[in-house]
Amino acid sequence: MRARPLAAAATATVLVAAGLTINGGTAVAQGPGYSALIQRASYGVPHITARNFASLGYGVGYAQAEDNICLIAEQMVTVRAERSRWFGAQASNVTSDLFHQKAIDARAAERWLAGPHDGIHAPSNEVRDQIRGFVAGYNAYLRGAKNKITDPACKGKDWVRPITELDVWRANWTRMVRASSGALADGIVAAAPPRADGTSVPASAPQAEAIVAARDGAPAGVGSNAYGLGRDATASGAGMLLANPHFPWDGGERFYRMHLKVPGRYDVEGATLVGDPIVEIGHNDRIAWSHTVSTARRFVWHRLALVPGDPTSYLYDGQPRKMTARTVTVQTPDGPVTRTFYDTHFGPVVVVPGTFDWTAQAAYAITDVNAANNRALDGWLAMGRATSVGDLRAVLDRRQFLPWVNVIAADRDGNALYADHSVVPRVTGSLAAACIPAPFQPLYASSGQAVLDGSRSACELGRDPDAAVPGILGPGNLPALVRGDYVTNSNDSYWLANPARPLEGYSRIIGDERTPRSLRTRLGVHQVQQRIAGTDGLPGKGFTTGKLWDVTFGDRAYGGELVRDDLVRVCEAQPTATASDGTTVDLTAACAALRGWDLKVNLDSRGAHLFTEFALAGGLRFADAFDPAAPLTTPSRLAVDDPRVRTALANAVRKLNGIPLDARLGDIQTEPRGAERIPIHGGRAEAGVFNMIIGVLQPGVGYSKVQHGSSFVMAVELGRNGPSGRQILTYSQSANPNSPWYADQTRLYSGKGWDTIKFTEKQLRADPNLVTYRVGERRH
Predict the structure, then answer these.
(1) Entry pTM
(2) By residue range, what is the domain housing residue 566?
(3) Is the pLDDT reported for residue 544 higher than 70?
């Protein structure tokens, strides 16, 4: 077998010569084996057409390998439990390897593939074909480029090897458990029974401790904004969508733009996480959707009452049950490392020191409802085929596949949808009341973490009659809302998806209600309401895709809008303050910088970084209380008499030592691309910024590298003549510094520019940079 790439202009003559025919202006691959047409548009975005899903997967695997082979290869190192072998034996790599080796030994991915190929009980044949093709396409590129890889991240590295279908399924499993077992991996690895004298074995599990301490179930390091705009919010009356996920700018969770088409069966433009073969955020010709990270918890705890004298057995309905012990070994440069894991019929035993300790009397196991979620790729495939909000909602209801995200959508008829139809453990109000022991009720009320009595079968999760699988809440118990005006989410719970119709009465495990909303959430709603009313300073009323772009990148800092003037008055009235370390700080320059700040996080905004550090230091303290009857406007008044406000400002000045307090943000917040430093606008959610950007503060220099924030941004309108609008991938299509697509979209983002939607043949052919080639191979 061999890959046959062909690069040429997109003309009918070349397409036919490449083994393709033209049907209604669409190139369709013919013949046996794999064959995919790749049309590279501006910024390197591939538009891939194939006759079936296997060939479509082949094209995706080939194109992603061309752009990001090192990212995919490193993902495979992770899921093969080989990070320590190749990248060193530091604790994080060893923990990762032990966790993934346990999953390999337990045949977690193989179990996913067993069962009817219906897309619910086991992956469908279409999705299996996509995975098979993706693997073949990736490997074909690797065969041709093994000694020609230009990315220094993996050039010449022995860990860049051919991949298997099982590798990709294991990677998909890892994505599913990102907010559950994966987030608790160090607690799973650390779990060990107490010593013979009954004392607990000392353990370290900082990642698991952070999960327990978190206010909700959102996985760390990711977030998003999204708007679904209906007929009453847009100038045309058609539906419109803003996708604005906030994801890492480096590593395996980068997005990748692509347009995938199997004529007559699937046609979707958007983005996916690198290494996945299907569009996960995007649009077809009638509907568009995005995701935001949900607040729901993805696992429940079970408190195990241990058998006296046997800490690896637990009582269940009065009868002892033995834990299953599994010994796992991984190879490191320092030699083999071996751990014994313990599992129950609920799931793995987990230790979180100080909260969930394994003692002689009790241990704690989790049920991870995403560990069996093999439905996601089929779910996204079905989303891409939906033709309306109603159709999309039926897909969500039937498949229940979203691992840890909400969905926000809009359709051509001007309907907008919000739904947290994600995979959530079935903790109903009655189950929580009957089965969460009194000492753990406050934890459930404050954070949605359910600690169930593991000694009674009556406290099992059970099954909702409308649920796709046992153990999860059915769609009738999950929040959803369809509107003709708008829905929005910025990582708070479902409660105020639209403030005119609060969603209330749902299980606490999904999220909180009638509680303060973040400044980012509040600004997100204000922006929509002000644009509909025409009171945001932009011309006209209602949204166009251009106005949606302007609103998204308006770079307002809502925290500053609320408190800056009061903060300046406090500062000028008392221009010295004491920092937390006891240092007396002169605030005169800080007062002046804040007074001159334009309340934005634009490139030319001066003093924005000072307010950011003030907010991060805990300075945004309010004098008024939250009012659930006015959730978008309370609290709002700075607690001017609280001494911690001035202390926070002093701390911010100290932290910014060596950086001018009135510096332009674009001079100190940058993203490196080779020797170039690209100025970056946007800012922290803690300051109330919608366009979130989180950078690394280098002392005396500034924010010298973006960690995460706005990534794939899409403003799409579903008009009668087809989808149109704007999109960008802020960190560019390729992580390879030698790629032509390494920095181009990042520069575009710096100037608040955009690439256009290119869904139709007419839109694509109008691209002056279009390059077409075919990839494929015959199977014998």
Answers:
(1) 0.95
(2) 555-689
(3) yes
